[in-house]
Specification:
GO terms for molecular function: DNA binding; DNA strand exchange activity. This protein is of the alpha/beta class. It folds into 4 domains: 38-160, Resolvase, N-terminal catalytic domain (Rossmann fold, 3-Layer(aba) Sandwich); 192-297, Hect, E3 ligase catalytic domain fold (Alpha-Beta Complex), CATH 3.90.1750; 311-539, no CATH class; 544-651, no CATH class. The chain is 42% helix and 12% strand. Strands 1, 2, 3, 4, 5 and 6 form a 6-stranded mixed beta sheet that branches.
Length: 678
């Protein structure tokens, strides 16, 4: 190439050519392969042989992991399920944790000892393979390698058939042992004592009490009166408690419906093929008396109707005797009763109490004292101290349970060192340890303290206004956002409510602590003195049981809620003109009658704007007038009656005979609120 046509050194064309040559020659070298992250899943149930123990599975998975050359973090990527069946993946915490880690991309290879450790269900196997494959995770069987979908389906189907065979063999062995009298019963029930070997003997004192119960019931005594009779004589019940009606009959497991009481032991009572063993030496009563009593009470004659609604304080209220209050629903009224007093258990508070009255007092407490900027912070600091003490106690219990779980794991690994020869006694001990490990693991998941619910003092005025609006809707509440906010606020602070019902009044003691404490721990320290206690007289009858409701109706009336416009007045004026004994038939009288029909309040609770009509409507019965007005306004789709609740739509002849005022209509959802735990 001639020199005169070459680009000059440093010219833009020369730089462009050099850059293109450099980009083509500077190719990337081979990238260094990073080892794949490996996770293990191990499972053991009490019915598995010892060579499927956790230690043996871990050893095989480690050997396979070394052959793959991957990385394994035992602290983060080891997922274990103990005392869990492979029939389903429901309730297996290890499976759930493994899938969550796979979604987070923490590993790429899952190693199991066998597919039966992962699942013994072909459907679950296909679903797990699809989920893990979609997340970029491959499944490896130790000593076999990666398995594909058709392989995992075949292996899981084989494991499923093996499980059914094992369960059939186990039940067949138990059945043969029961027929031979070697599997009589693992623990004795009320009326019997355990003796050496798989056998029972009668407890003379308890058998006499059972015989008396049969005689009393056969004579016509109902179960509640029977419980009262036994509690009144201070006869100790099962486990040292008090006698309750539900303890007598429980589908073959109650005190009076067990076939062993007539000398017949039934193994697998509710199974497909129960086995009957004759034991006349254990009979407490005659077979005729047993059959006669159980024919009347043994089979339930009716089903309990589901509760349609529940107060938001359900589960928090206790009687002064210490027992929880029983809820009785009677139409629109709901009352709390001491169940111990009803069955004669030593409590004399037999009188019921309205749940809405208790709710009103608790809401009044929150509005005027707990949400008070002066006294509220001191109470919140006390609750924080209570929560910190509970948290420390629960953490100590968690450490103790965790240490025992680790000790059991070491004992299980020690029992499974020899895989060639399985000792049956070691297998039995292993099953007991697995059961204890499972129970402690369940306990560990329950030892959780809910977070501390601190009050938002910047929104205290908003919360006070919400509580007032809820009080204006008592006794009904809704599932609206405002009502649920108030319910959450109350249940995040109140740990327990003690109700003491007397003839002249009632006493409320509200305890503040850490609601939601784990089972076995007290949510409040009663010696700390962090409670609110007041004595109240019995509430008056009629609408004044809920004064906020009455005041709310009066405020709505003063704001013009029941005011008729010219069109509505022209439509209802003929109805008013034809009504006798109403005095002046003007628009104010019509609005006063509309107020009575919409609220259920009598004339003596009229607001100031309707007070001139009170003497005229005090003894009058405007039911027919209200019925005609409502029909006319409803046909016109008038906004005055648009918010009429179901109670207000019932056209009574005597409106003044209503016991309570109709509450203000709910905000969003008119259906009653039910506790999720109910």
């Amino acid at each position: 190439m001639p020199e005169d046509i070459l680009p000059r050194e440093g010219s833009p064309l020369q730089l462009l050519i050099r850059n293109r040559i450099d980009r083509r020659t500077d190719l990337p070298g081979p990238t260094q392969q990073t080892p794949s992250v490996i996770a293990y899943y191990l499972r053991r149930s009490s019915a598995d042989p010892l060579y499927f123990s956790i230690a043996a599975q871990l050893a095989h998975c480690n050997a396979h992991s070394h052959s793959l050359g991957g990385e394994f973090d035992q602290r983060r990527l080891l997922f274990v399920d103990r005392h869990r069946s492979g029939a389903t993946t429901i309730g297996r915490e290890g499976i759930a944790a493994m899938l969550e880690a796979a979604r987070q991309g923490r590993f790429r290879i899952l190693v199991v000892r066998s597919i039966c450790r992962l699942t013994r269900n072909a459907t679950d196997a296909a679903r797990l393979h699809e989920q893990l494959t979609g997340l970029g995770v491959s499944i490896h069987v130790a000593g076999r390698g990666q398995v594909q979908q058709y392989e995992i389906m075949l292996l899981a189907l084989s494991a499923q058939r093996e499980r059914l065979r094992m369960m059939a063999s186990l039940m067949d062995g138990k059945r043969r042992a029961a027929v031979g009298g070697e599997f009589f019963g693992s623990w004795p029930t009320y009326g019997y004592d355990r003796i050496d070997g798989p056998d029972w003997r009668k407890n003379v004192n308890q058998a006499a009490i059972l015989e008396r119960c049969f005689r009393e019931v056969d004579a016509g005594l109902n179960l509640q009166d029977l419980a009262k009779l036994l509690n009144g004589e201070c006869i100790p019940a099962r486990n040292g408690g008090i006698w309750r009606p539900r303890h007598f009959f429980a589908r073959g497991r109650g005190l009076l419906d067990r076939p062993i009481l007539k000398g017949v032991f039934v193994w697998s009572l509710w199974g497909e093929k129960p086995i009957t063993i004759s034991r006349p030496d254990l009979a407490v009563i005659s077979a005729d008396l047993f059959d006669r009593v159980n024919e009347r009470y043994g089979v339930p004659t009716r089903t309990q109707e589901p509760r349609t609604r529940a107060p938001f304080l359900l589960g928090l209220v206790r009687c002064a005797c210490g027992d929880r209050m029983h809820l009785a629903e009677d139409g629109n009224a709901m009352h709390l009763h001491c169940r111990t007093a009803q069955i004669g258990g030593g409590c004399d508070r037999t009188k019921g109490f309205s749940t809405s009255i208790v709710a009103r007092q608790v809401l009044h407490l929150f509005r005027h004292e707990i949400l008070d900027p002066d006294s509220g912070p001191e109470l919140e600091e006390g609750r924080r101290i209570e929560w910190q003490g509970l948290n420390a106690t629960v953490q100590a219990e968690r450490d103790r349970v965790s240490a025992r779980i680790e000790q059991i794991a070491h004992e299980l690994d020690a029992l499974s060192q020899d895989e060639e020869e399985i000792d049956p006694y070691a297998a039995a001990a292993c099953c007991e340890l697995e059961l204890e490990h499972h129970k402690l693991s369940e306990r560990l998941t329950q030892l959780v303290v809910p977070p501390f619910g601190a009050l938002d003092w910047e929104r205290v005025d908003v919360d006070r206004a919400r509580i007032l609006r809820v009080m204006e809707r008592l006794p009904s509440m809704s599932r609206s956002g405002e009502d649920l906010r108030v319910i959450e606020l109350v249940r995040s602070i109140v740990s327990e409510i003690e109700l003491d019902i007397r003839e002249d009044g009632y006493q409320l003691r509200v305890w503040f602590g850490a609601p939601g404490a784990p089972k076995g721990f007290d949510a409040v320290d009663r010696l700390a003195g962090r409670w609110w206690m007041r004595w109240f007289p019995m509430p008056p009858k009629g609408p004044l049981r809920y004064p906020e409701v009455v005041l709310g109706h009066q405020r709505r009336a003063e704001a013009g809620m029941f005011r008729l416009d010219d069109g509505d007045w022209a439509a209802v004026e003929p109805v008013i003109r034809n009504a006798p004994r109403l005095g002046p038939r003007d628009r104010t009288t019509a609005e006063a009658i509309l107020f009575i029909g919409m609220t259920g309040l009598p004339a003596k609770y009229f607001p100031e704007r309707y007070e001139p009509c009170a003497p005229l409507l005090k003894h009058a019965r405007p039911g027919a007038v209200w019925r005609g007005m409502y029909e006319v306004l409803h046909q016109r789709c008038s906004p005055v009656v648009a918010e009429a609740g179901p109670a207000a739509r019932i056209l009574h002849e005597d409106l003044n005979s209503r016991a309570h005022a109709h509450p203000v209509p709910p905000l969003e959802d008119p259906s009653p609120w039910c506790d999720p735990k109910a």
